[in-house]
Amino acid sequence: MPDTTLTSDHSHDEPSAGAYDDASGYYTLGEPIADTKAPAGDIADRWQTRKFEARLVNPANRRKLSIIIVGTGLAGGAAAATLGEAGYNVKSFCYQDSPRRAHSIAAQGGINAAKNYKEDGDSTHRLFYDTVKGGDYRSRESNVYRLAEVSTNIIDQCVAQGVPFAREYGGLLDNRSFGGVQVSRTFYARGQTGQQLLIGAYQAMERQVKLGTVTEYTRHEMLEVIVADGQARGIIARDMVTGAIETHLADVVVLASGGYGNVFYLSTNAMGSNVTAAWRAHRKGAYMANPCYTQIHPTCIPVSGDHQSKLTLMSESLRNDGRIWVPKKAEDCAKDPRDIPEEDRDYYLERIYPSFGNLVPRDIASRQAKNMCDEGRGVGPMVGDFRRGVYLDFKDAIARLGKDAIEEKYDNLLDMYERITGENPYEVPMRIYPAVHYVMGGLWVDYDLQSSIKGLFVTGEANFSDHGANRLGASALMQGLADGYFVLPHTIRDYLSDGPFEEIGEDHPAVTEARADVEARIEKFLSINGSRSVDSFHRELGHIMWEYCGMERTAEGLRKAIDMIRELKREFWSDLKVLGTADSLNQSLEKAGRVADFIELGELMCIDALNRRESCGGHFRGESQTEDGEALRHDDEFAYVAAWEWGGDAASNDMGTPILHKEDLVYTAIEMKQRSYK
């Protein structure tokens, strides 16, 4: 590795960020890459330019082309509906029993759009700026501007579908604020925004199912991507009910399979959420970009014990009216919060960040909550050696607006909190603590959303493209619907204009090889016959990831984590116990494949975090912080997308040495500067 130098200062006595390569020996440096599809010119004109330049497919030819879409959340469902309506032949796959159970349904607080209905200074450019700044200047400006530009179309589309957004007394759509912004641009449907938006996309897709342009495959899990002659041409899927291994071929494949937060075991994700579709593509040549960028959500119900398998999200929208605090004195932490007088409460976000207060971005709010608990001022029951919680208090909002107004805004969220905790949040402050939620990393894509494998497109949370090192609240739904309704349908046609492609059959060598790999992998899981359950390996992996690659990372901790994960992988492949058979419903077998991929992903996440010796957004390196404990970037050294190529033998369980390709981040419309919310 070449020697590097860095001019930025940081507050610790360790060597500066560029004095040496922390990850030397863990990876190989590959050739730099670039996004060749993004147009040049004024940023406000780039998307229109690309749409015009993208070649067309006439309606008669569309009927000859086939598209596989893996995932039926907002990105996948919207894409299936739109591409089906355009006349393509679409196959839609999900592992749930209905597309309506996709994890997008769990999103609560809202969806951003630069409508400026509140006349408070919002605009496309401000949404663009807020998103790039919120991502700590580690996102592509062309992609982010496009996202902001099409955001306004999303709301009109969803209203036309009948999505019941909240409205003001005069009938106009209402807005509220989310973290990292000073305007109100978030449209919402109580605390059920994801559910309502998903129903809209689902209805649009089901219309195409009825018309015959979309074919649904529920309870099917993608286990391999078929790459023939350098192009993605299909998938191998397992019927999760019968166990049958099926081959599905097409002209192009779209992955809309969501994020990989469950690598931490405890997260706000549904237990079925996994990385297998993306990771199988990675092993076939698709680059994995910025895998270490993980979002820790600041408002989740705290862990209550070792029995839990997931955590519950409390919408960030609660921070509009709830005030976050901890006792000023550690001896007050065990008291009933109602008995702690105002002068003994530390509203720490309002104190540290007076301009944004409780609406600072998620990474900052999460890290400060951790800091308060690490100081011994956490609240709630003892879990291990710590009280892991801070208060989110609606007392002042109820006094100002009345209980009825708070109930109208948040009743389903507050009712859910009471059902889970047994505490009435109208009377006692809520207790919250950060938890793994979203991932900004994902498969590398160009401006067209095409991965490094030709014909493999990636949308929504499964790709890395729009959020940088931290996602602003209410932007996940925006990206999913933007990709599905308004971006992919324009960009995928440029690729499909070369079709129809030469047909391949199930006897094609690439198809038979992919199918044989899947069958051999399943047989391997069943034949190990060890003593440990899949869940025990997953829980251990999650503990390693949270402790050493969670809210704060250090070189020492990351190296330790890599060693522990490698040892865990050896034990997994020698002592795993999978009950049942392959030719039936077998959830233990399903989990085995997912956890095997999580283990490999976890190792790459730690290597990526070790290589990036800077703090940015959700990636906080203890060695790189300012004197007052804020994240310290090193733009002269790390202003790039880290795109990782699989470095192992595709047929083995050895990850080998991953290859790092750097894509330089260049800003022409925004000045790259140290982020501040004070």
From TrEMBL:
A GO term for molecular function: flavin adenine dinucleotide binding
Q: Name one GO biological process term.
A: anaerobic respiration
Cite the EC number: 1.3.5.1
Quickly give the catalysed reaction: a quinone + succinate = fumarate + a quinol
Q: Where is this region: Disordered?
A: 1-21
Which InterPro entries does the annotation name? FAD-dep_OxRdtase_2_FAD-bd, FAD/NAD-bd_sf, Fum_R/Succ_DH_flav-like_C_sf, Fum_Rdtase/Succ_DH_flav-like_C, SdhA/FrdA/AprA, Succ_DH/Fum_Rdt_flav_su, Succ_DH/fumarate_Rdtase_cat_sf
Domain named FAD-dependent oxidoreductase 2 FAD-binding: which ranges? 67-477
Q: Name one Pfam family in it.
A: FAD_binding_2
Record's GO cellular component terms: plasma membrane
Assign the protein's first listed, main location to one coarse class. membrane
* Primary enzyme class: oxidoreductase
Q: Which UniProt keywords apply?
A: Cell membrane, Electron transport, FAD, Flavoprotein, Membrane, Oxidoreductase, Transport
Protein name as annotated? succinate dehydrogenase
